[in-house]
Amino acid sequence: MTSLQSVDDLVSEANSFHQAMFGRLASKNFTQYYVRANQECPTLNANQMEIDEICTLIRAGANITNIESALRDRKKRHPLVKKMILISYLSECDGAHIESFRPSNRRFQFWLTLPFWGLRALFRKFLGKLSLERYGI
């Protein structure tokens, strides 16, 4: 089964998602792996309506990470969630992203900041739900 999306759309998607998660564009190797995974993995395929939703979000410059957080509440996993999980997996396997996954040696500082990260996650989910309503997803 092949993807309904063109290679250019998948490269644009990979760059948008990578920018949202890591604050920089994806490398050429990273985008090649992303495109290949989307073309070869049938569970990542979406119907045309879902592809259009994702493209609309990217073109509008919506905060993808907030929307993905809100979409995780649904029973059926939206393709946007699957694609963000793929981005996370590829980045964990890529040596260029090691700084994002290093454990901290400051355990005390971690416990002090834990409530902040919990509140931030709730706030992002709230913003994501507002974005879902705004974009009609």
Please characterize this protein's 3D structure.
The protein is built from 6 helices and no strands. With 137 residues, it is mostly helical. It has one domain (7-135). Helix 4 (64-71) crosses helix 6. The chain is globular and about 45 Å long.
How are the elements arranged and paired?
Layout (H helix, E strand, L loop, with lengths): L6 H16 L5 H13 L7 H13 L3 H8 L7 H15 L13 H29 L2
Helix pairs in contact: 1-2, 2-5, 4-6
Strand content: under 5%
Low confidence ranges: none
Integer average pLDDT: 80
What distance lies between the first and last C-alpha atoms, to the nearest angstrom?
26 Å
What form results from the Cα inertia axes? globular
**Total domain count:** 1
Summarize the structure.
Helices cover 69% and strands 0% of the residues.
Question: Keywords, please?
Answer:
137 residues; mainly alpha; 6 helices
